[in-house]
Amino acid sequence: MKINKELLKGSTVTLILKLLERNEMYGYEIIKEMEKKSGGVFLFKEGTLYPILHTLETEEWVQAYWQTHEGRKRKYYRITETGISKLEERKQEWSLFRNAVDCVLGEGKA
Amino acid sequence: MSSILELENPEIKGFLNTVCQQVRAKKLHDEIKSELLCHIEEHVSDNLANGMSDEEAVKHAVSSMGDPKEIGRDLNKAHRPHTNWGLLFPLLLLSAAGLLTMASIQSSADQPGYILFFERKLLYTFVGLACMAIFWVIDYEKLKKYSEHFFILGLILLLLGSWFGLQVNGQRSWLTVGGGFSLYVPTISIFAMLLGLAGAAPARNWNWNSTLAQLAYRGLLPIIFLAKLNVFIWIGIYAVIFMVHIWITRKSTLQAISMAISIGVVGVCSLMLTSIPSSNYLRSRIMSFFYSKTDSSNSDYMLTKSLEAMGTNNWWGHGIGANLRIPYVHSEGVLPYFIYCFGWIAGLSVLILIFGFIYRLISSVIFIKDEYGKRVTTSICVLFVIQFIWSVSMVFGLVPFGNLELPFLSYGGTSQIIHFAMVGLLLGIYRRRDMVPIESTI
């Protein structure tokens, strides 16, 4: 089943931050990881990742730097302190949201 | 597949160009292109490994990027220009208050009226706004390569001032340029020198020889030249700007501290030996601050007058054009006069505007990632903070009276034009804060 684009949009930032929290990555790597971790559910147009990364960079949630790897120049992203605390916020927000949705749908514990 | 081949591939090229057409920050085009190209390259080589043909591999990689127009539009949004309203707004209001004050001084019967404070201030404000607009629009990074020229220009102006300057209030710092106009040398040359410092070799790259050269050329020389003009407050301001320059480009904390100590010791010693004994004016000002009970010199008189003018129960003021005998009513005495005329309610509003401006100055330093931009912003910030805080504190007797004007409120003259230009530069740097490639920030 394909996931609704709008549904994915709201949580892309959280997912990217989470991946970067574990490792410093470049764009293509992020796409691949996301696809792998979600079991192929999170597929989006790959180019749309970059405006998000650049916005995160201007907000200073992530920091970017260029590095040459096996003759290829790659732009790596690393999460900042601000990014980490924003990720915590987003995670809490998400679990609250998820519980609430589950409750309304009648599948929650409450 | 090599990257050269892929860059020449019309499909990839077309994709990258369409993305970049949407992005207004042209300086970022190269960086965006290489980042996206790197992505497509990796995808293509994965596709080839999965057994696709060359053509298929490229087609698939490009199409899975998505709509180039949409990507470009969103990238443009991420790198849009910013306007620092928090800086612009207090500036305009303070200038309006300054114009009002000048009109008030001019219409008060006490003033001989041979100086058209209001008309002159209006002219300076317009010229200043024009300079601000120019510095706002131009790309500040272009100034970087003229850093050395700016620094030398600053030094030359100081020398000219000490040779040909007009002496007023013990300062030798006005250069007449004809038409009844004169340039106030210290502000202009400090602006030039701080631009020079911002593009100068960072302290972390100094070795033993260059440390000595830098300290002598950029530290001591301007200080000695400023001392020749008898503008001691500006020596202090320049010294702080120079130390902050070392601090933000330092190798280590130890380096910065030892530099600060050596500048302090050498600077004070050389001033003691060369200038202070010959400057009765400065001595009397300093003395009167520390021995204000016994000494009734100029500065003491100034403070008494200014406290008297502001009063304690003066909430609504004595109205526009009120008469007040206070020395330097248009410059150092501008705040007491403003409060005398318009009362403490207006006075406090002006103080709030000043502190809003200072707060905004300091906080905008954090937003600038580009190193050169950050250094320029920091120096200008230091200058404004000292000048504002000192000139406000002195009318309350917290610090000695210095020959220092309240920016934008005082009559100003050439200093006012320079102040506007500096704010313009800050606005320009802030505007482009998300529009510079990261490579220039390292």
Uncertain stretches of 5 or more adjacent residues of chain A: none
CATH topology of chain A: Arc Repressor Mutant, subunit A
Helix-strand sequence of chain A:
HEHHEEH
Q: Please report which band the strand proportion of chain B falls in: under 5%, 5-15%, 15-25%, 25-35%, 35-45% or over 45%.
A: under 5%
Q: How many strands in all of chain A?
A: 3
Largest sheet of chain B: 3 strands, antiparallel
Query: Nearest-angstrom radius of gyration of chain A?
Result: 16 Å
Q: Strand pairing plus helix content of chain A: what structural class? A: alpha+beta
Structural shape of chain A? globular
Q: How many structural domains are formed by the residues of chain B?
A: 2
Number of helices of chain B: 17
Distance between the termini of chain B: 31 Å
- Structural class, from secondary structure content of chain B? mainly alpha
Shape estimate of chain B: elongated
For this structure, the quaternary state is: heterodimer
Any overview of this molecule?
The complex is a heterodimer of chains A (110) and B (442). Chain A is α+β, with helices and mostly antiparallel strands. Chain A has one domain (5-105): Orthogonal Bundle (Arc Repressor Mutant, subunit A). Helices cover 58% and strands 16% of the residues of chain A. Chain A contains 4 helices and 3 strands. A 3-stranded antiparallel sheet of chain A has the order 1-3-2. In chain A, helix 1 packs across helix 4 (81-105). The radius of gyration of chain A is 16 Å and the shape is globular. Chain B has 442 residues and is mainly alpha-helical. Chain B folds into 2 domains: 3-78, no CATH class; 85-441, no CATH class. Chain B has 17 helices and 3 strands. Chain B has helices at 3-8, 10-21, 29-49, 54-63, 68-78, 85-107, 117-137, 147-164, 185-198, 208-228, 232-248, 253-274, 280-290, 298-310, 334-367, 371-394, 414-431, and strands at residues 166-168, 171-178, 181-184. In chain B, a hairpin with a 2-residue loop joins strand 1 (166-168) and strand 2. In chain B, helix 2 (10-21) runs parallel beside helix 5 (68-78). Chain B is elongated and about 90 Å long. Chain B starts with a helix and ends in an 11-residue tail after the last helix. The A-B interface holds A 26-28, 31, 44-48, 50-52, 54-55, 57-58, 64-66, 72-75 and B 3, 19, 31-32, 34-36, 38-39, 41-43, 64-68, 70-71, 74-75, 77-79, 433-434, 438-439, 442.
